[in-house]
Amino acid sequence: MIKVAIADVEALVAQSLATLLGLEDDIEVVRTACSGRELIDWCAVHPIDVAVLDLQMPGLDGIDTAAQLSDAAVLIVTSHPRPQALKRALAANVLGFVPKTSSAEQFALAIRTVAQGKRFLDPEVAALAISAGESPLTDSEARVLDAAGTGASVADIAAQVCLAAGTTRNYLSSAMAKTGAQNRFEAYTVARERGWI
């Protein structure tokens, strides 16, 4: 039996994934959590085989959470499967990366695959990552710029990525310079089109 824990900022998504996986004979969801920190604390006491992590969570995102779950295989799920996020996940030794639009069968197959220590990558995202090229943005610049895509204020962006407003402003300015953009939304658009976020 493959023991799985799920962390997703949206409780309904985590519970829905747990219900879907509960239909599989060889997979048991032993925990759902609403944050990476909550899952890390729980996993420190309860061993699991696979952690299913939402890419975009406040505080510790899925990849940061994965870095602290050394005893479990990790499958990242995301609504926004961007090439740069895949590259970052692979650099952090994440084994699986799939969009939330995956079918229930693909999702279960991904869990079985990473539980065996093998990679499972969505082919479309993998192809985009190969063609995107290297990003000039640092991880911090990319995270801040990605959050800026909603049109939020600097203060709101800072709160979302857990940084000070001044630090956030500096990362935005640096990202604008690297993308050749006049404002943060244009920088977001350029980075998005090039597959950097």
UniProtKB/TrEMBL annotation:
InterPro entries: CheY-like_superfamily, NreC/VraR/RcsB-like_REC, Sig_transdc_resp-reg_C-effctor, Sig_transdc_resp-reg_receiver, Tscrpt_reg_LuxR_C, WalR-like, WH-like_DNA-bd_sf
Record's keyword terms, sorted: DNA-binding, Phosphoprotein
Pfam families associated with the record: GerE (PF00196), Response_reg (PF00072)
Residue ranges annotated for the HTH luxR-type domain, each copy included: 130-195
Response regulatory domain residues: 3-115
Name of the molecule in the record: Response regulator transcription factor
Annotated positions of the 4-aspartylphosphate modification: 54
Statement: the UniProt record of this protein carries the keyword Glycosyltransferase: no
GO MF annotations, alphabetized: DNA binding
Any one Gene Ontology BP term: regulation of DNA-templated transcription
PROSITE patterns associated with the record: HTH_LUXR_2, RESPONSE_REGULATORY
UniProt entry tagged with the keyword Phosphoprotein: yes
